[in-house]
């Protein structure tokens, strides 16, 4: 076997390389996957990177405009089949999430909630009429969806939800409050999970229905370039045709979470990569004691350790993606990826911040923004503690949640 250095096998003497070349990332992907990745990377570079620091600082996001642009590239509900969706592989979807989150977790959130939560719920549990009505418009980004599971008193334990749907003649009447809902104030349709006499059910609620209000949650120190809202349902009257007929228990919303959690397995690796690349570039140009700080052993140890964890996270994401495209993933396997990759991405962001010194706390560099965003990512879609317990349950057979 040849040991000749090639484009994919950097020699120690060949000058600085990049983490992706060192890890031979390209060799893990096929042509189509590399093409999708490069397309999304280019979009992030041209459309997100120039403005994200300012959006973040102002706490705003042009969600409607961006949704149409993301939709035109086929990124909304991209792994779903039919109804205007691109029908890509899970790996391709994951790579898109990775590139979007290298831009900002808030952009990946917009796409996750639209495609993996709201559209997936309609696709998996909706009637044919609901799918025809909502999905093509949502795939194009002309209609935005949100997903209301969490309530003020029930976050990790959604089984306790108080939002109620009660029969009134042929209609349903919904009352309750959902909180921390991504896309809530910009949504055209809210997928709302509510308790009925027969168990938990899902409803596609047009947000112009009388009695529905959405209030934007401000004062966030994390995910500032993302719309987060409280939804209030005050005697919201809906026809039976708004109920998702295939959703008959808590299993339905939890199934949707698997999809969005999978996107985070990849997405968090993107945030980590952006922090690592930023730190590497900074370390090569920042001079102290008459030399680049990248020349000091302590800095090199940080860069090497970050590269290892980034590489392991990428490999885990690809492994889980290939399994999802093969015979499928169990929820606890998604938990392995979400727990590890978000935890390591935060560690990488914090280490990268130390390499940037004082500059690391500014909006001029993306590192502190990613670190702050990842605090939300650690909590939403199941906290790190919940995923630890899911893995613990799988290993021991004993559920330790209650
Ligand atoms: P448990 O009794 O274990 O389960 C109830 C039923 O659901 C089934 N199930 C699942 N099915 C599919 N996928 C999963 N991940 C599932 N987990 C459980 C289970 O088999 C059972 O089915 P059946 O037919 O026997 O009834 O339920 P539990 O009440 O004990 O709770 C288990 C626990 C703690 C794991 C679950 O409640 C949980 O995952 N909690 C975390 C809540 C969470 O992640 N919320 C996320 C809200 S959405 C969000 O954060 C969006 S952020 C998006 C963004 O901006 O990017
Ligand atoms: P809690 O459940 O109150 O947990 C607080 C702490 O207690 C955590 O550390 C938790 O792990 C720990 N804990 C709880 N129970 C246990 C236990 N049994 N054992 C050990 N530790 C435990 N929700 C939606 O439905 N839709 C959305 O679109 C959405 N978007 C979000 C966007 C953002 C920016 C954020 C921050 C959240 C969003 N969420 C959304 C809500 C998110 O899913 C919840 O915040 C999350 O599930 C945790 O719930 P909680 O915040 O109420 O925390």
Automatic annotation (TrEMBL):
Q: Which cofactor does it need?
A: FAD
Q: Which residues form the Acyl-CoA dehydrogenase/oxidase N-terminal domain?
A: 31-141
GO MF assignments: fatty-acyl-CoA binding; flavin adenine dinucleotide binding; glutaryl-CoA dehydrogenase activity
Acyl-CoA oxidase/dehydrogenase middle domain mapped to chain residues = 146-236
InterPro entries in the cross-refs: Acyl-CoA_Oxase/DH_mid-dom, Acyl-CoA_Oxase/DH_mid-dom_sf, AcylCo_DH-like_C, AcylCo_DH/oxidase_C, AcylCoA_DH/ox_N, AcylCoA_DH/ox_N_sf, AcylCoA_DH/oxidase_NM_dom_sf, Glutaryl-CoA_DH_mitochondrial
Q: Mind listing the UniProt keywords for this protein, alphabetically?
A: FAD, Flavoprotein, Oxidoreductase, Transit peptide
Q: What region holds the Acyl-CoA dehydrogenase/oxidase C-terminal domain?
A: 253-395
**Keyword Oxidoreductase appears in the UniProt entry:** yes
Q: Which reaction does it catalyse?
A: a 2,3-saturated acyl-CoA + A = a 2,3-dehydroacyl-CoA + AH2
According to its UniProt entry, the protein's GO biological process terms are: fatty acid beta-oxidation using acyl-CoA dehydrogenase; fatty-acyl-CoA biosynthetic process
Homology family: Belongs to the acyl-CoA dehydrogenase family.
- PANTHER family (alphabetical): GLUTARYL-COA DEHYDROGENASE, MITOCHONDRIAL (PTHR42807:SF1)
Q: State the name under which the record lists this protein.
A: Glutaryl-CoA dehydrogenase
């Amino acid at each position: 076997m040849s040991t000749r250095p090639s484009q994919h096998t950097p020699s120690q003497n060949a000058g600085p390389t990049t983490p992706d070349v060192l890890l031979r990332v390209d060799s893990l992907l096929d042509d189509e996957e590399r093409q999708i990745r490069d397309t999304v990377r280019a979009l992030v570079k041209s459309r997100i990177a120039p403005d994200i620091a300012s959006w973040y600082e102002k706490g705003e996001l042009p969600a409607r405009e961006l949704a149409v642009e993301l939709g035109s590239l086929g990124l909304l509900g991209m792994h779903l089949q039919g109804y205007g969706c691109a029908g890509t592989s899970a790996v391709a979807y994951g790579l898109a999430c990775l590139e979007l989150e290298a831009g900002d977790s808030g952009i990946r959130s917009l796409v996750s909630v639209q495609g993996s939560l709201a559209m997936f719920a309609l696709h998996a549990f909706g009637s044919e009429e609901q799918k025809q009505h909502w999905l093509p418009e949502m795939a194009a980004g002309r209609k935005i969806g949100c997903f209301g599971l969490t309530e003020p008193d029930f976050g990790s334990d959604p089984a306790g939800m108080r939002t109620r749907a009660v029969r009134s003649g042929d209609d349903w009447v919904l009352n309750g409050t959902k909180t921390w809902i991504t896309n809530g104030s910009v949504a055209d349709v809210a997928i709302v999970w509510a308790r009925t006499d027969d168990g938990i059910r899902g409803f596609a609620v047009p947000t112009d229905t009388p009695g529905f209000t959405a209030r934007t949650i401000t004062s966030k120190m994390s995910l500032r370039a993302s719309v987060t809202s409280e939804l209030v349902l005050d005697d919201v009257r809906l026809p039976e045709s708004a109920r998702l007929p295939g959703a008959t228990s808590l299993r339905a919303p939890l199934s949707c979470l698997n999809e969005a959690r999978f996107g985070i397995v990849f997405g968090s690796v993107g945030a980590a990569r952006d922090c690592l690349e930023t730190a590497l570039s900074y370390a090569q140009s920042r001079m102290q004691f008459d030399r680049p700080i990248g020349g000091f052993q302590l800095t090199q140890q940080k860069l090497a350790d970050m590269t290892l964890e980034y590489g392991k996270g990428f490999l885990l994401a690809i492994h889980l993606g290939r399994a999802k495209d093969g015979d499928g993933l169990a929820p606890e396997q998604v938990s392995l990826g979400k727990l590890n990759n978000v935890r390591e991405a935060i560690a990488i962001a914090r280490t990268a911040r130390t390499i940037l010194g004082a500059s690391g706390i500014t909006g001029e560099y993306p590192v502190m923004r990613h670190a702050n965003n990842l605090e939300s990512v650690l909590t939403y879609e199941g906290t790190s503690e919940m995923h630890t317990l899911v893995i613990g349950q799988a290993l021991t057979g004993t559920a330790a949640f209650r």
